[in-house]
Amino acid sequence: MSKQTGGCLCGQVKYSLDTDSALGGVHCHCLDCQKSTGSGKATIVPIPEKDLHLEGTLKYYSVVGTSGASVERGFCENCGSPIISAVVGPAEWEGIKFIKAGSLDDSSWIIVGASIWKSTATHWSPAEAGLTTFEHNLEG
Ligand SMILES: [Zn+2]
Ligand SMILES: [Zn+2]
C-alpha cells in the first residue's frame, strides 16, 4: 500500500490516493480527450472515488460522449490543468473517477494496460503496439 500525490500546475488543486486502489492506466485517443488535453491522447487511471482525496476546487465541464453518457471533466479553474474525469450515467462507472496520469507528482508506478479509441488516434500519436487495443471504448 503506498500513498501517492498529485495536482495541477499552479498547486491550487491537490489530491492523494492509494496505489492499491488504482486500476491500471489506459491511453484514450478519443477526440474529446485530444481537445481537452491539447495532445494526441489522455492517459487515465481509474480509481474508486472513495479512495481519492481531493483538496481545492475543480471546475467541471460536461459533455455528452459518443456512447450517449455524459462525461464530466474536472480542471483547475486557475491554471486549466485537467485533473479528473468521470462518466455519469452507466452503472458500471458509478463511483469511479479517472485521474490524468500526468497530474501525478510521481507517475513511475503506473502500468498502462490498454489503448482505447484507436479509431480516432492520429498518425503522430498512434495506439501503442503491444497493448490491448480497442477501436472504440472498453466494450469494443
Ligand atoms: Zn491550478
Ligand atoms: Zn477519451
Structure description:
The protein is mainly beta. The protein has one domain: glutathione-dependent formaldehyde- activating enzyme (gfa). It has one helix at residues 31-37, and strands spanning 3-7, 14-18, 25-28, 42-48, 52-55, 58-64, 70-76, 82-88, 96-100, 112-116, 132-133. The longest helix is centred in the N-terminal third of the chain and has 7 residues, at 31-37. The N and C termini lie far apart (32 Å). One zinc ion binds at residues 28, 30, 32-33, 42, 117.
Write a concise synopsis of the structure shown.
This protein has one helix at 31-37, and strands at 3-7, 14-18, 25-28, 42-48, 52-55, 58-64, 70-76, 82-88, 96-100, 112-116, 132-133.
Keywords:
binds zinc ion, mainly beta, eight-stranded mixed β-sheet, 140 residues, 11 strands, glutathione-dependent formaldehyde- activating enzyme (gfa), three-stranded antiparallel β-sheet
Walk across the major sheet and give the strand order. Answer: 6-7-8-9-4-3-10-11
Largest sheet: 8 strands, mixed
How much helical structure, as a percent, in the residues? under 10%
Structural category: mainly beta
Q: What is the average of the pLDDT values?
A: 93
The radius of gyration is 14 Å
Counting H and I runs of at least 4 residues, what is the number of helices? 1
Q: What percentage of amino acids are in beta strands?
A: 35-45%
* Strand tally: 11
**Silhouette:** globular
> Per CATH, which architecture?
Alpha-Beta Complex
Terminal-residue CA separation: 32 Å
Bound molecules: zinc ion
Q: What fold name goes in the CATH topology slot?
A: glutathione-dependent formaldehyde- activating enzyme (gfa)
Overall number of domains: 1
The CATH fourth-level homologous superfamily: glutathione-dependent formaldehyde- activating enzyme (gfa)
CATH class equals Alpha Beta
Low-confidence stretches: none
Run of helices and strands: EEEHEEEEEEEE
